[in-house]
Amino acid sequence: MVIESLTNPFKAEEKPWTLILIGIIYSTLGAFLSLWIFREYASLVMIFLISFACVPLIYATIKFEEKKNFQILKESVLLKEHGKALSFMMFLFLGITISLTFWYLVFPPDISAQLFSVQTNTITNINNQVSGNAITSSTILARIFLNNFKVLLFCLLFSFIYGLGAIFILTWNASVIAAALGNFIRSHVSELVSAVGLLKVGAYLQVASLGFFRYAIHGFPEILAYFVGGLAGGIISIAVIRHDFNTPNFSRIVFDSADLIMVAIALLVFAAIIEVYITPVLF
């Protein structure tokens, strides 16, 4: 199909930054098609359409990574090879987030509200849970980690059961971040213009940069952890589909996936510490 021909794992690993453009194309198509055909349910249909567009690339990538278990014997080298796939997945996620944030800001408020209605409700519920309780930083840290760990488990299970299920969760996270970032920019631009008297374009750039770094500092390691978990579940899923569990090499696949899961958990701990103790200080 046309979307499948845009790139493949080999091209993506050689030039991972090109996946930003791919993410922008996929998400733009998903946003416009969902508004055009399924306007009433656009906020969820958009996620499905973007996820469907990513399926050929992610499936080919997981198959490619699973084969590396038979070609590379040293685990440290194997993890480094997996890093190539993870890097272009992060660029893909970045492209989707940038594109959806852009359309959130460009569309009229009523259309943005419809396109991101479910995401906005999710953000509101999260904010109410945090602001409605007087709790210590250690409790917040535990809560954030457990919530993120739950998402990681979903990525693992969805990837194992559905093969590519994690891409849906990650696309959903990209849309939530885009809605939060877009709302942050919109709400702060008017305040900045009236208080400082900056030009509108300059104000947008300043607030957009501030909003991006506010979420990126802890968001990137968090999303990377989900990709690592999704890759681990996907590798095992592909191995089972190929009946590799009947071979001696299956133990290597399980060991490799276990290492990826441990890396994902470590990244979640790191992201939670940054979100609780560093992000509030900087912003």
Brief overview:
It is built from ten helices and no strands. With 283 residues, the protein is an all-alpha fold.
- Poorly predicted runs: none
H/E topology pattern: HHHHHHHHHH
**Secondary structural class:** mainly alpha
Average per-residue pLDDT, rounded, comes to: 79
- Rg value: 20 Å
Number of strands: 0
Give helix % range. over 70%
Number of helices: 10
**Amino- and carboxy-terminal Cα gap:** 45 Å
General form: globular
Number of domains: 1
What portion of residues belong to β-strands? under 5%
Largest beta-sheet characterization: none
Describe this entry's structure for a reader.
It is a single chain. By secondary structure, this protein is mainly alpha-helical. It has one domain (3-282). The protein is built from 10 helices and no strands. Helix 2 packs antiparallel against helix 3, helix 3 (42-71) packs antiparallel against helix 4 and helix 7 (137-162) packs across helix 8. The mean pLDDT is 79.
List the helices and strands and how they pair.
Elements lengths: L8 H6 L4 H19 L4 H30 L3 H32 L2 H7 L1 H15 L5 H26 L2 H32 L3 H42 L8 H33 L1
Question: What descriptors fit this protein?
Answer:
86% helix; mainly alpha; globular; 283 residues; 10 helices; single chain
